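Lecture 7 notes: from sequence to structure.

We start with a single chain of 252 residues. Read the sequence below before looking at the structure.
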Amino acid sequence: MRVNKLREIWAEGGTAVNGWLHIPSSWSAEVMAHAGWDSVTVDLQHGLAGYQATVTMFQAIGMTDAVPMGRSTWNDPAQIMRLLDAGAYGIICPMINTRAEAEAFVGACRYPPMGYRSLGPTRASVYAGADYAQHANETIVTLAMVETQQALDNLEDILATPGLDGVFVGPGDLGLSLTGQTGMDMREPALAEALAHIGKTTRENGRIAGIWTPTPDIAKQMMALGYQFITISTDTRLLSTAAKNIVEQFKR
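Now the structure, written as tokens:
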């Protein structure tokens, strides 16, 4: 079975950098995957890709060394299982607030007896190898998103979920839950305190802490707090920023 590069990085104590895809295109997915990210995540929750587009994006990512990941729209076992059958080597699941929700999420990602995932890895066995089903349970990465005050209060219980690899922080939603304010100011005191707590607590519990960040500088700050799976920006933001800079340079 094809090795999951993320697990190799973490086993060595390293930090993985993750690309994020909102654009429903196999071509832009291929370009991003060739940029050198350790993994690339297709975002079905807030991105624009449906299932068929996601499959073609996984095919494009699979032509590179980047690990294909998917963010599900919700804690939906049917969708999670389809993403895995399509070749996702890890799932990021939004809005996990309790251990029971984390257990349901992990169960959808693991074959019996560890979970209740249905057997039928249609594309996954082509991408990963004929022995996929025998090794999927220890290969697939499961990251539960911590995005609310409730999840923060239940963090240690969530981290104790058998088969859960770690948590992934959505700073926008977490900040909204903690302060009632929209935006992405990760320096806001309540959010900054929560981010430090999540990084420290997750590492102490032997799990992986992941997070979305807008810039490399903030990504480095999060790495210093113990985060080992760090997303920097999105394909949409990168395209928009580069295009605006070029237009502004020309007009000046």
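The two ends are 53 Å apart (CA to CA). Keep this in mind for problem set 3.
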